[in-house]
Amino acid sequence: MSPRGAAPREATKVQDRGWAWMVLLAVVLLQGLTLGFPSCIGIFFTDLQHDFHANNSETSWFPSIMVAVLHAGGPLCSLLVKRFGCRFAVMLGGLLSGVGMVASSFCTSLSELYITAGFITGLGMCFSFQAGVTSLRYYFVRWQALANAMASTGVSLGLTLWPLLSQYLLDEMGWRNTFLIFGGILLNCCVCGAIMRPVQLASKSLLHPARPGEEPGREAEETQLANGGSSPHPKVQPGRRTACFHVLKKYLAFDVFCQNKGYQIYTIGVTWMMLGFALPHIYLVPYAIHSGVEERMAALLISVIGFINIFIRPLTGLLSGLSFFTGRRIYLYCLAVLLCGLSNFICIISAKFSVLILYCVTISIAMSGIGALTFQVLMDVVEMDRFSSALGLFTILESITLLTGPPLTGFLVDITRNFHCVFYTSSFFLISAALFMTFSFCALERKGKLKEASNAPLDNFSKHQRNEILTEPLSERQSPPAEVRITNI
After folding, report:
1. Are 271 and 400 in contact (CB under 8 A)?
2. What predicted TM-score, i.e. pTM, was given to this entire model?
3. Which of 228, 263, 256 is nearest to 244 (CA)?
4. What CA–CA distance (Å, rounded) separates 148 from 386?
5. Same domain assignment for residues 193 and 284
6. From the Swiss-Prot or TrEMBL record, what is one GO molecular function term (predicted)?
7. In principle, which of 30, 167, 347, 382 could form an S-S bond with 132, CB 3.0–4.6 Å?
8. How confident is the model over 98-114, as a mean pLDDT?
9. Is residue 233 assigned to a domain?
10. Are residues 51 and 185 in the same domain?
11. DSSP state of 209
C-alpha cells in the first residue's frame, strides 16, 4: 500500500472518536455561553428603560445589534479560522465578549451599550460560536448529524440557566454588576477554545497532513478559490478587481449562491424567517410582565423553553440521522418552522401564566427542530469544502433581518400599545418562510427527477455500448479503444 493511500485511514483514527468528543463537549459549552446568552436580555428591559428613559424600540436595538453581529461576523470568522485555526478564533471571541460585557457595566447611555454589549460582545460570541461549529466538521463524519444535534443542546442549557441566573443577580445587585459578572463568565469561551487542539487530518482534496496549527482541507479550498476554481498554477497575476472578486467568492460564497439552487432557496427562506424568529425570545418576558405576571415567573418562561430543548434536540438529531430522512431533512426543518409560527397564536389567546407555559412547551419543541437542523441542512445542500464560506454568507444575510426585525416590531408596539403585534408579526414571517422553502424544494426535486428521466436513455445506451466493447474477444482489439463518455450537463 502506498503512503498516499494510507493517509485517509490515518485520518479516520481522529474522527468520530477519542478527542473528538472532548471537542464536542467544548462546542456544547460554547453554544450555551454564546447563543443562549441573548435569551436573557429581555429580563433587563424594564431596568434599562427606567435608567435610560427609553421606549421599546430604542431598547430592543441593544439585543438586535448583539444577535445581528453574532451572525454577521461570519465572513470575518471564516477568515480567522482559515488563517489561524479554530482554536485562535474561539479564544479571541471569548476575550472580546468578556471585555465587551465588562465595559457595558460602566455605560452611561444606550448608545454606549450598543457598542460595548451589542457590537463588541456580539462579535466575540460570533467568533467563538461559528469557529466551534466549523471545528465539528473536521472531527465528525459518521456521527456528524448527531454531533450537530448534541452541540445544539448547549443552546438549550443556555436558555435554561441564563434567565434564572440573570433574574437572581439582577435582584441581588442590579444590572450593572450583573453585566460585570457576565463578562467573567463569557471568558470561559477561552477555556473551550484551548481544548480545540490543532489536528492533522487528510481531507478528500488534499491527502498530505496539514501543517501544525492549520485546519485540514484549508489549503485545498484556498488554492482552488484563490485561482477562481481553475488551474492551481496561474501564469498571470489577477488584477485588483479580479482579486476582489476572488476574495468575495472565497469568503462569501457568492458563486455557490448563484449556482446552487438549493443553497439559494435555503438562504433566502431562513433570512426571511429570521425577521420573526427572534421576536418571541426578546418580547416574551416584557409581554408577561406587562400582562401582570410576576418578574421571577416571567423569567422562568424562558428557562422552560430551554429545559425542554435539552431533551428534544438530541432526539431530533437522532431522528434526522435516520436513512429515511437522507435528502429529506429540509422538509423536517420546514415542519418545525411552521409549528413555531403556529404556536405564536397561543399567546394571542391569553396571557395567563398557565397558557404561557403551554406556549413555551409548544414553541420549545419547534425550536428544537430548527436549532438541531439549521446547520445540518446547510451541510446537506453545500459541499463540505465550501461550507465555511457558505456559512459566512448565510449568516451575514440573516443578520440583516435579525437586526431590523425587533426594533421595527418594537416601534409597532409603541404605536399600538399592544404586544399582540409581536406574535402576529412573528407568525407571518415564520409560516410564509416554511411554505416558501417547502414548495421551492419540492419543485426543485421534481425538476431534478424529470432531468434524470430525460437523461436515462442516454445513460443506458452508454452502459450498453461500453459492455459490448468490453466483451469483445481480445484478439479482435489489439489496442484499447478510445473511451467515449456521455456526460449529463
Report:
1. yes
2. 0.68
3. 228
4. 18
5. no
6. monocarboxylic acid transmembrane transporter activity
7. 30
8. 92
9. no
10. yes
11. P
CA distance 82 to 88: 10
Verify that 266 and 397 share a domain, yes or no.
Answer: yes
Burial class (CB in 10 A: 0-12, 13-18, 19+), 297: middle
In a domain, 6, yes or no: no
Top-confidence range, 5-14, 16-25, 239-248:
16-25
Taking the C-alpha atoms of residue 214 and residue 302, their distance in angstroms, rounded to an integer, is: 39
Q: How many CB atoms lie within 10 A of CB 348?
A: 14
CA distance 176 to 181: 9
* CATH number of domain containing 419: 1.20.1250.20
pLDDT tens track for 373-424: 887 888 888 887 777 778 778 878 888 888 888 888 888 888 888 888 889 9
Give pLDDT tens digits for 303-327. Answer: 888 888 888 877 877 777 777 777 7
Of 155, 179, 199, the domain-final residue? 199
**Does 180 share its domain with 277?**
no
CA distance 437 to 269: 6
**Per-residue pLDDT averaged across 214-234, rounded?**
38
Cell 437572581: give the residue. Answer: 168
Find the helix packing angle between 45-52 and 56-72, rounded to 10°: 120
Residue whose C-alpha cell is 443553497? 263
Total domain count for the chain? 2
DSSP 118: I
Angstrom distance (rounded) from CA 271 to CA 224: 28
Which structural domain, as residue segments, surrounds residue 430? 252-454
Report the distance separating Cα 375 and Cα 72, nearest Å. 16
pLDDT at position 225, please?
31
**Residue 420: exposed, middle, or buried by beta-carbon count in 10 A (0-12, 13-18, 19+)?**
middle
> Which residues have a Cβ under 8 Å from the Cβ of 365 and sit 6 or more positions away?
308, 312, 339
Beta carbons of 124 and 95 less than 8 angstroms apart: yes
CA pair distance 481, 467, nearest whole angstrom: 13
